[in-house]
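To fix ideas, we reproduce below a protein record of this kind.
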Amino acid sequence: MTVSDKDSPQNVRASVSDAGKFIHHHTEFPTTRLSQVMDGVISAIGKTASWLWLVVTGVIIYAVVGRYAFGAGSVTLEEVQWHLAGAGWLLGLGYTLVTDDHVRVDVIHERLSLRSQAWIELFGLLFLLLPFLGLAVWEMVPYAYSSWQQGETSQAPAGLPYRWILKGVLALSFVLLILAALSRLLKVTALLFGFPRPIRVESGNNKKEDAS
């Protein structure tokens, strides 16, 4: 075999077998019909939540101008800032997982074959991420409910009421993370075991087709 043959794109594509037909974003994992629906919901929520950062920027500018130009500081505006920033960040967590745009620190993972990566993901999802997220939701739902029952408000003078809303968003964000993790789990099992059945993702305006 010549050097050119060894490094040819055809052989590179062949090294990942038929999985290349089902490439989904830069993860190279296949997608399924159910995971597409779950990803779509989570992505819509994440993209909508991203507009909160524009609102946060406007509130910050308004608060800064009011404080330094007119000497009118506001505790309410300060709390609005971190409430909105917290909600925007929390609701975006699931989006980063379904798009695989979260930070990865495993330098070994990227050097492994696609199937080896999938086995690592399978182990991590089943025994690390999903149990942690389940425990987090188990604790956070009563945490938010208790805040609602007590009518919890900010302890600061002129602070915001309804503190349970932010705590509810915290619980919701972990529920969305669970859905994102389950969606990713479906993609991993589709690659490793062929179940659920992977689907072909066409670019442009072409429709998605079932894999044969």
